[in-house]
Amino acid sequence: MKKVRIIGVPEHFNLPWHMAIEEGAFSERGIDLQWTDIPEGTGRMCQLLDNKETDIAIILTEGLIKSITEGNKSKIVQEYIASPLQWGIHVAAQSDYNELDQLKNTKAAISRFGSGSHLMSYVNAQNQNWNLDTLKFEVVNNLEGAVKALTDGTADYFMWEHFTTKPLVDNGTFRRIADCPTPWPCFVIAATNAFIDNNRSTLSHIIDIINTYSSEFKSIPSIDKSLANRYQQKLKDIQEWLSITQWSQQQIDEKKVNTVNKTLKKLNRIEKELNYNKLVI
User: Fold this and answer.
1) DSSP 8-state secondary structure symbol assigned to residue 141
2) Cα distance between residue 120 and residue 85, in whole Å
3) Are 49 and 192 in contact (CB under 8 A)?
4) Cα–Cα distance measured from residue 227 to residue 233, given in angstroms and rounded to the nearest whole number
5) Distance between CA atoms of 160 and 11, rounded to whole angstroms?
6) Over the stretch 41-80, which tens digit does the pLDDT of each residue have?
7) Which of 37, 81, 126, 262 is most buried, taking the most CB atoms under 10 A from its CB?
8) What stretch of H or E contains 6?
9) pTM of the model as a whole
10) Which DSSP helix (H) or strand (E) runs through 86?
11) What does the pLDDT look like over 179-224, one tens digit per residue?
């Protein structure tokens, strides 16, 4: 049995992986796929890839590309979610902020530098024509840290996936002011160069299996109810999320990668744009 380490966020996007693991799809091909949830998100996952503490990650596109340009010896294996991520912009429910404009020159909570919540704060600021040099951040590590920071007032707003944070909006912890969708496919499957070079056959099997599961995922009977129960979401929210989410079974194309590259460069988040073939296998 070939042991393979894989990481991802504990969110509904990754249920196809858990179903494949639980149903023995990988072990049938001699692969012991060991999943670890990383609630801290993409910044932490980039670090784990860079340190070779994992083999594969299901990770935000923009965070991984930024990390690779900074020397992370990993590559995109395939696009995973072809649709944009809906980043909700949240404030504490009791705060005085009611409009997006009011957040100008305030402090954003981020999981860590280089994370999606960090990079998308720049995308949002650019969309609003804010001065990027004046952005301020409070590192909070994860969603629990963001709840504390916004409640205590050590940060003013927090960007996180719309549906993951919806229960916190419903229970009166957060108030969502707006959404900021990514201008690119949100999740990719990444692997370290060392794993790619030494395990081509194993990687091919893993991709074949997840592509089978993801392509059939939305047609599974009562999958909306299964997701709602497993991730403690309202059924109507899961149904809305399913309607706008598209799983991919293809490699991310060069045009989409170039959009990420050019955006990160324009926002001064990377020093140079890497060629497509330096980022994907």
Assistant:
1) -
2) 10
3) yes
4) 8
5) 12
6) 999 999 999 999 999 999 999 999 999 999 999 999 999 9
7) 81
8) strand 2-8
9) 0.93
10) strand 86-92
11) 999 999 999 999 999 999 999 999 999 999 999 999 999 999 999 9
